[in-house]
Specification:
binds S-adenosyl-L-homocysteine; 4-stranded parallel β-sheet; globular; 6-stranded parallel β-sheet; alpha/beta; 41% helix; 333 residues
Length: 333
């Protein structure tokens, strides 16, 4: 559905009509991507980061974080176990940790590819040559949120980073033939609904295959500790409008949504989402990868998370996707 900026703003603001919006998004989801929910096993393999984003719990300047990175073998083993319990996609996410050189990442990707899984990388900004090498080693998808398209806000939230550079990275990733995932946070300080509408139009314009919407949740050990943060309702409305605008893309029910409400992900699955990314990180690492406070399931195991979310999905009459769950472009949108 083509919505103009005014229509998007209207839908984002209308709390009274949000149930109708969620129903509509749910029916568009059913029509375009069906009832399967695709599960992606998320490995949080390093909380070491060279960046200092004001909102993020693992920012370089947070000296209270106990830092870790998995070894190459630990990471490969975690992926093997996730494949063994049935995950068909492995998402490897981390801070921008340069311990993982191009060669090391390529070896890891090649090893994990042998487990018959699709591989998504979410490791931030790298060079064209690195993106190219990762792709050639077997990485299928890349996930990197633009966070906001308001460039001034972006630069306020990280004075050291460049919005244009992040955008250029997304374009390189797309050009190299990855499936492109992006997304935004909602409820950032000074962010307006007009700006969120621009974000949605941007995501539509660049032709993403997947996009995640997460409420911003202030972390107490960051400069934004005292900010209000985003609400689940606004995050869900943003996600539902995105489903109307981009009917066939993959949309995750995000972990941050569930951190604000115990049924956040199920609510999202009934308002346009068709993907869930259960955590398959093991042991202490789960707690230490703390982007925001109140993160769910930090004391659980991968097997537990897989069966728990599986039951919840089936309880709302949906099925677990059996394939890799790639973006299937529709011809009639
Ligand atoms: N280094 C990678 C991964 C970043 S962490 C990259 O740059 O892409 C993954 C996502 O968590 C971020 O893109 C951001 O949207 C989200 N995030 C970070 N801090 C957050 C917070 N305080 N509240 C909610 N989401 C947050």
């Amino acid at each position: 559905m083509n919505l103009d900026k005014q229509q998007i703003i209207q839908l984002l603001q209308d709390k009274e009509q949000q149930d109708a919006l969620f129903k509509k998004a749910d029916s568009v989801r059913h029509q375009y991507v069906g009832d399967e929910v695709h599960l992606r096993g998320l490995i949080e393999f390093s909380n070491i980061c060279r960046n200092n984003c004001l909102y993020c719990g693992i920012r370089r300047g947070n000296s209270k974080v106990v830092r870790y990175h998995m070894t190459e073998n630990e990471l490969i083993d975690t992926a093997r176990k996730a494949a063994n319990i049935g995950f068909k996609t492995i998402v490897m996410q981390s801070g921008e940790d340069m311990y993982y050189t191009q060669d090391k990442m390529c070896r890891i990707i090649e090893a994990i590819k042998k487990f018959d899984v699709a591989i998504t990388l979410s490791i931030g900004e790298r060079t064209y040559d690195e993106y190219k090498a990762f792709r050639e080693a077997g990485a299928d998808r890349y996930l990197m949120r633009i966070e906001t398209t308001d460039k001034d806000l972006y630069h306020k939230l990280d004075p050291e980073m460049s919005w244009q550079h992040r955008y250029d990275c997304l374009m390189m990733i797309k050009q190299l033939g990855y499936e492109l995932g992006s997304g935004i946070m909602v409820g950032l300080p000074e962010q307006t609904v007009e700006s969120i509408a621009d974000d949605l139009l941007f995501l539509q314009e660049i032709g993403i295959d997947m996009a995640g919407i997460g409420p911003f949740i202030p972390h107490p050990q960051t400069p934004l500790a005292n900010e209000a943060g985003g609400t689940l309702d606004l995050a869900l409305r943003t996600m539902a409008v995105m489903r109307l605008m981009m009917p066939d893309i993959n949309i995750p029910a995000t972990t941050a949504m569930e951190s604000l409400h115990p049924k956040g992900r199920i609510m999202a699955l009934q308002a346009g989402a068709n993907v869930v990314m259960p955590n398959v990180t093991e042991g202490e690492y789960r707690k230490l990868y703390e982007l925001y406070p109140g993160k769910i399931c930090v004391n659980d195991t991968p097997v537990h998370c897989r069966s728990c979310i599986g039951m919840k999905i089936e309880a709302i009459g949906r099925t677990i996707g059996k394939g890799y769950g790639a973006h299937k472009k529709s011809t009639n949108n």
